[in-house]
Amino acid sequence: MKFIPVSILFLFLSAAGFSQKSSFGQSDPNAKKILDAVSAKFKTYKGVQATFSFKNEDGKGKMLGLKKGVLLMKGNKYRVTITGGQDIFCDGTTIWTYDKASNEVTISKYDPSQNTITPQKLFTNFYDKDFLYKLNGEKKEGGKTIQEIELTPYDKSKPFFKVYVMVDKTTQTIVSTKVLEKSGNRYTYAVGSLNGNAQVSDAQFVFDKKKYPGVEIVDLR
After folding, report:
1. Which residues of 146-183 are buried (b: 16+ CB within 10 A; e: fewer)?
2. What is the CB-side half-sphere exposure of residue 8 using CA atoms within 13 A?
3. CATH code where residue 110 lies
4. Considering the domain boundaries, does residue 3 fall inside one?
5. Does 213 reside within a domain?
6. Domain count for the chain
């Protein structure tokens, strides 16, 4: 389970920059209002600290894997730590991807203009013009009112065909996201906790090789 290919940050998708393509049908304005509110709420955050879980199931619902981790974010800086696996640092200029099993870190340049998934894009305008979306309705879960939004990609060559986003109606935050792949696999990303006013230092977004004795460095810059 690599971080980047199917990012856990689907959790934080928002509607800023959404458009409605008439050639594919109109997106639901009620769904857009909800996603716009999620985006607006995020923009009030000064520093983010969130816990998450990532569950992988096959088409029959059999558990194939479960990962947990922590996300830190401030401005264009971010850090994603997957328990027992990867630790990804970005200080807005450089990205360090550390693999615990091999004790290896790969260094690359941060280029926001590239067509890559970053927390900033996922918190703001990841969807862009890529999805048709609609509100499926509301349901009660653990005393919360959860709004389910269904997204269908316009590009049928994508490996997934549906994304379901669950939003807490009261807090206007995403509770979980489920991605359905054409292969039959299902990926569920759930938020355990989210603090939008976390005190996060800049040093937490920089890889310090002194803390990783014997680390092998692969510099791709």
Report:
1. bbbbbbbbeeeeeebeebbbbbbeeebbbbbbbbebee
2. 27
3. 2.50.20.10
4. no
5. yes
6. 1
Residue 190 inside a domain? The answer is: yes
Contact (Cβ atoms closer than 8 angstroms) between residue 167 and residue 34: yes
Q: Is 202 helix (H, G, I), strand (E, B) or coil?
A: helix
State the number of CA atoms in the 13 A half-sphere of 197 facing the CB: 1
Instruction: Kindly state whether residue 85 falls inside one of the protein's structural domains.
Output: yes
pTM of structure: 0.77
Q: In tens digits, what is the pLDDT along the chain, a chain of 221 residues? A: 344 333 444 444 433 334 444 345 678 889 888 888 888 888 888 898 989 888 889 888 898 888 898 989 898 888 989 888 889 999 999 999 999 999 999 999 987 665 454 555 555 545 546 788 899 999 999 899 999 999 888 888 888 888 898 999 999 888 888 889 898 989 888 888 889 899 999 999 999 999 999 999 999 98
Q: What residues make up the domain containing 62?
A: 31-219
Tokens representing 7 are 């990012």
